[in-house]
Amino acid sequence: MMRLWDSLQALPASARALVVAAPWLGSGQSLGAVQAAALTGFALSFGDRITCHDRCPDCDTALGVQLSAQALIAAQEAAPEVAGTLSHDGWTVRYHLPTQTDLARLDRASGPERMRRDLLRATVDHVTGDTRTHPPESLPPGVVLALAERMEQEDPLAAAEMALDCPECGASWQSGFDACAVLLARLEAWARRTLWEVHQLAMRYGWSEARLLEMAPVRREAYLLMDVP
Ligand SMILES: [Zn+2]
User: Fold this and answer.
1) Is the separation of the CB atoms in 154 and 83 below 8 Å?
2) 176 C-alpha vs ligand 1 centroid, how far in Å?
3) Distance between CA 30 and CA 152 in Å, rounded?
């Protein structure tokens, strides 16, 4: 994990969330697969429980939400296999699930309408209707909707959201969940804390960084709690 943290420091902050899950990513490159990879990295390094924080949009009450990394990974694994072809209302669409590369090409300043259209163009590889080939833009809204539903079923973690209720005022809202950002924040906090422990113990006992990083965290903590004469 320290080597992963090292390699991330070489990247601009905005690019780190895109690659933090790479060590656990298999052959699937969809947004949901990347989220599942980040959750796997989180579970292996920091345990199953993820704590997210949000604020009520109505009364600003702070809220902590507990999620299970394994439960989220299971939801992605239970998704049906990617069909790659959708037949709907006489149209046949060949598609792939959205990837980080597809998202990175979108112009965020262009507005949600334009971004939706560009994402459709990026993920639809071929369209046939009445035995002729058409551009993705010509798909009727009903087919686009069916395609979006299909992608959501096949890639459930792609745009995961938490349904939250405020215990103070009863407001309900949806909050986005980004496993890559969660893993990145946790890794950052862990690395800073670990380096602080190494610094303290190296100064006190003269032990090397390599030795201290190999030491079990509970033992480092036990030494830190000892009285210095
Ligand atoms: Zn509230």
Assistant:
1) yes
2) 17
3) 11
CA distances from 116 to 102, 156, 223 (A): 11, 18, 55
Residue 144 burial (CB count, 10 A): 19
**pLDDT tens digits, residue range 158-183?**
988 999 999 999 999 999 999 999 99
Helix (H) or strand (E) run with residue 132 in it: strand 132-134
CA of 53 to the centre of ligand 1 (A): 14
Alpha-carbon gap, residue 175 to 55, rounded angstroms: 10
Mean pLDDT along residues 93-110? 91
Domain boundaries along the sequence of the chain: 1-79+177-229, 80-154
Helix (H, G, I), strand (E, B) or coil at 54: strand
- Taking a 5 Å cut-off on Cβ, the residues next to ion ligand 1 are 56, 58-59, 61, 166, 168-169, 171
Structure tokens at 24: 């656990």
Side chain identity at residue 206, one-letter code: G
Whether the predicted model's global pTM rises above the 0.70 cut: yes
Instruction: Report the amino acid identity of residue 118.
Output: D
Least confident of 24-28, 49-53, 64-68: 24-28
Are 187 and 1 in contact, with CB atoms under 8 Å apart? yes
Q: What residues contact 182, with CB distance under 8 A and at least 6 apart?
A: 38, 42, 50, 52
